[in-house]
Amino acid sequence: MKAPSSWNPISRIAYKFPTAIPKGRTFLSNQVNGAKAPLIKQKDSSTGTHTAQNGAAVAWLPYTLRWPWFLSTFTFTCLLEIAVLVVHSISWQNSGLVVDDGSGILQIGSKFAPTLLATIYVFLASILLDDVKRTEPFARLSSAGGAPADLSVSWTADAWWNALFNSFPSRHKKTNWAMLCATLAFVLGFLIISPLSSSLIVSQTIVSPESTRFLQLNIKPSMPIHANPSSETFYRTISSILQNITTSAWISDQYAVLPFWPASFENAPLGPILFETDQTWTTTTSVFSTELNCEPMQLTNVSDGYQGRYAYLSSQRGCRVFYHYSYDENGAILWSNPKDFPSEFAFYDSTNPLSAPPPCVQYDEYYATAVTSPETIITGEACEILYFMGDSVVTASLINGQSIVKIDEQLYHANRKLISSTIANISTFKDALLSRDWSKHLSASDLISYPDQAKPIIEGPGNLLAALYDFSPDRVLADSTENRRSMRQRIEGRFFGELLQDSFSNNQLHKPDEITGLITTSPRRLVVVPAVAITLEVVLVVILILLLVVFVATRLARRPLSLDADPASTMSIAKLLFDDNATMQSFFNVPTTVEGKLKPTLLTHRYGIEQGKVRLISRESTISSTSSDSAATRTNTQENGEPMDQSGMEKSTVFGIWPLIVLIIMLAIVMVVILTLYIYSQGHKLYQKAFVYTISVSVTGVDLGDANPASIVTTLVAVIIGLWWGSLETNLRRAQPFLALAMGPVNGFKGASISYRSSYLLWASARAARRKHWLLFLVCTGAFLSQILTIAMSSLWSRQPGIVPMNMQIPKSLELRDVPILSKGVWSNSPRGLDRRSKALSSLFGNMKTSWVYGAVVQLSLNGPEPTWSSRGWNFVPVDLAPVNISASIQSSSNSSNSTDSPLTRITLETPAIRGQLDCSEYHFLDNTSFWLNDWTLPEGTELDPDISHGFELGTYMFLNGSTADYPATTLFSSDRRLQCCQNMTNETNSQSSIGYWSPNLKDRQSYYPAISKVWPANFTVKWIRGNSLEATLSSTDDTDVSGDESNRLIWTERPKMTALNCMPIIETANTSVTVDAINGRVIDFQLLSPPEKDRFAWTDDFEAYKNPSPPSTEFDVNMTTSHGILFILGLLGAADLENLIGATTLRSVPGGDSFYDFSRAERLEDQTFNIRDLGLNVDYMTYAMLSLVNNNHSALLDGQILKETAQKTFSTFFQHFANNKISMTTGGYLYQPLGEKLPADIGEPYFQSRPPTNGTDNGGNSTDRMTQVTVSQPMEILSMSVPAAWICISILGYLIITCVLLAVASKNYNRLLLRQVDSIADIAFLIAGSLRLLKLARERSLESLKHDNTVEAKLDWFVTDRGDRRWGIEVVGEDPDLTVPPGPPTREPSEFSMSDERANVREGLSWYDAVMLDIMSVGR
Hints:
By secondary structure, the chain is of the alpha+beta class. 33% of the residues lie in helices and 25% in strands. The chain is built from 36 helices and 54 strands. α3 packs across α4 and α24 packs parallel to α29. It is elongated.
């Protein structure tokens, strides 16, 4: 290509280089008349600028060191410091930044944003350090006296550690504060700021208190409080003690707390659940409690007396009582008030046995347990009951879905005082506790024995105490004194609390008091880790100081550069060197291809900048021009004029192949690790201790939070990859112009006039793409992506609660019952004999601690828990989970970070299930009240309202076929007894009453309870009756009672309303997949795997009798088989009348029956074990549960649809608790049996039946596998991997690997193209030394004009100097023969790779590999 015609000859300086230099002389640019003159510097001391030869100011600075850019960098760093301080302060004051709701925005804000800001800072710091390093040689050249070559023109500091070490002082130089501080600012950025930024904000469960206005229940209007227990009070107390449930969160067995609640609540929360969200209330309120002060009473004497024995007990204070018991009595549990001693108890030293003598007056209660056979053993206590009240700090919190109220016991005991009479009438509380009404609400006599058998005497609250010991005085005595007293204290405390709960409920309408307190929440919030924040704050302050030092140290007044333009390109260096022969000669003599020879050659030279030009100042040892010239000539050529043989010489390595291979391997390993962990995290989860390990930081006992090493390590790995890739990108950016020149003649826009050294990331990519330097484009894009990789890697991990699955097989031990339940009974041929079913039915209610009736009604009315292995009406065959829990505990031991508030271990398995349902239809004949009401003409003189002359009474039966005297029929009560309770008389005002009972449908007159049907399933009736009623003693006029009998009756003043349902029970089974809590078997979720089917084994055996061969007798033992459905229905319908479990109402009609058993014709008001009888309410437990489901809205149950829905819910719930009653993993239960169970072979012969015993397996029964597959979901703290971040990392690493492979392939040819690395000023100066045409252009034209002149092309190759020698360097390609590469390439060594325009000729001498690479590399031209 021809040089432009506008070039002007050199007019000012006679350019004679490279004419031979006379021997023994050294040409210096400042040599005048053979004498050395000092280096001249024209400097403006006020501005720090220098002046070039043409008078232009030489005050150039890189953009990053100019005050606008530097101020931006400094401001950005200040903002980072402020941001960390602000978020740290907000997090510290508010216990976190925001609530972590798991949204993507918060994930970005907590992970992405901090790392992005840190990455930007590291990038800015790297640019700053790069510009400080590349201007350092010019700063040294501008110093007074210049600088040695090794510290100036040949100085390089590529890696940050080189820059750091070169900043320290040595024998030849002082501390370089600018480069030292810039390096430290960069190092602190990528070693501390960037890795820690990913752990600055984490998600944690935080306890956050907030002062709040509370309301407190106001009980002042009802003071002094009187105890007035209702049936519900006894029911709640019994349920709490036996079922261990909470009826109100404010009431416990030890304390009763005056309720309080946030002012934002509309109503006072008095139930078991105070709130649904995870929070804690804390305030100071009143607390009540009871305490027993007891003295033991010892048995002193036993003597025979009238119809029994007398046992004498005495206390230490001399209080003596005696206990009288009959010879056939089976023990006693007596707990009584001295004012109301039972007949068996009396004071010994008193003229009035019921009047306490002086030694006994201080005692409020007496307790005694006696065993009378085979010997008399009695233990007792005389106790004083103390009632306390005091203020204490109380906290109410939600734990595992239950409201828990705790008090500061130490503070309470310090503040408590005896309750004064102005606050409560304590005597009423004592009387209520020790009353005999306990026998009504928990009838031990009906639960433990038959009427004709001896039973223990149980009085007062002793009934509840006895229930805890299965009504056995022997078991009570076997327990320790401390435990017995603890049980009594528990009963008293609970009953006292329930009495106060009645008062609390009655005071809800009063205006509450205002108090202050704290609401503490425990949300999962984004929290700034104090240890990380403090570290970042300190480091950022240090960095700001370092930046200030860099700014001050790089001002031109302190660090002059003497430059008027960016010295990055080849032409800019040429303009610094073109006009001094001696300087150019010093670079001309450097060997061409021997790496490492440059510095030793120039080691004795000293250079400086004079008038904006680089000058050789001095040589400390002279080198003759002849020897230098000959050395250069010998270095470059052989004697025959050909380039000398370079084999065996050390070659340049722009890109070493082994570092690239190591980088590729590292990138591949990181990508494989991330991909593997991603796949594993999606399935098995990362829960091992190595993954969730945290570093706890504390200083002088102050907890500074936990840091997650996983995020720090991954971020550090990404930073290392970014730094490594950045070094590759820096090398390629620096070498790209020379590679372009080496691959062929290119204009200044692509070669000699450009530089990528001050271009970064996407800007460098854009410039490379514009010039079609595609490999550089890929590498620079990779540098940008490596920054994104750092951000993505920092967002890769987060520690959070998770579920870890584990599969295993465990054995099954139970299956659904297909064999009827085997029980014992007595067959009686006597008309007055007990029903054979009575013993089996009584066993359904014996253990009150596990009572399925109490459990069901507690669940429905008091929000009690569902049974284990049961949910939404379905009951699942339980499996022994012990093997699972052992495995789970072993697995969880590898995860020490398991949170205590995490969800419990879950187990999912397939198992059969069973449920009970109702198919109900409403009766439509009820408007005709003649089917169920009896009319009364009220006589004068009754206690009823004299204005009422006519009334109505519920009949004993309700006939179902539209006739008033024909079957089928059902009873109005649960059995055929007359209802006589309960009126609703309040303040002499009669209000409405409600009655509700479930009763069997009787087919004919021979049907009676429990023989209610011969065909199963048998229907029953659900009834709800409401109206105005009064209780009165009247003579009977109907056919149900003996004429003339006077008795208590319930008379309705007007016709009551009734809604009734005819219901058929349905029992269904299905296969299910159920998920349960591994600890307690609580069902979390389930799915039906098959449609529900009717259980064909539920109704097969109706107490079928089998007897051993023996002579007939009046009574004999029989074995009985009963299907679980029949047993459940009979138990359900018979619970409200425990006496009728033996068929009492039927025995009553047998001649002599009344005198023998004295069975009542009316409902037994003394039996309220499974009834609620209160003001205006008389219901069984099923109806009470239904009423609770509609929030005690009595009118709601008159709606047939509501009655049907509540009956269905109630029936299913009672069936759930029946199914889970008395379950054993070895013997089964009512609905479950051991695998393959059969009736025993010695069951006996069928009695009054023709079919053989039912064995399920012989009749197509259940077939159950003995092993089942379970999936254990273990809650653990896991290391969660962000899916988007993972794929971003994998994609970027894949891109970097591909680009690195291309770079590795190209590196071999890059190293061939460049015979030496081009790193320093001297490296470029060497390439242009002897390039006369290029230097001429540098002297005559501006950099900008050369850059955009497409007619001027230059090339890096071998060319002929003016002396005829061949030299490797950069020269303008023109038409001059002496400056043009001769046609036909010379013989080259394999290490030489030259590009020429004659591609076809070059290709002929290449191997296939070189030919392919020629095409690849030529793309960049």
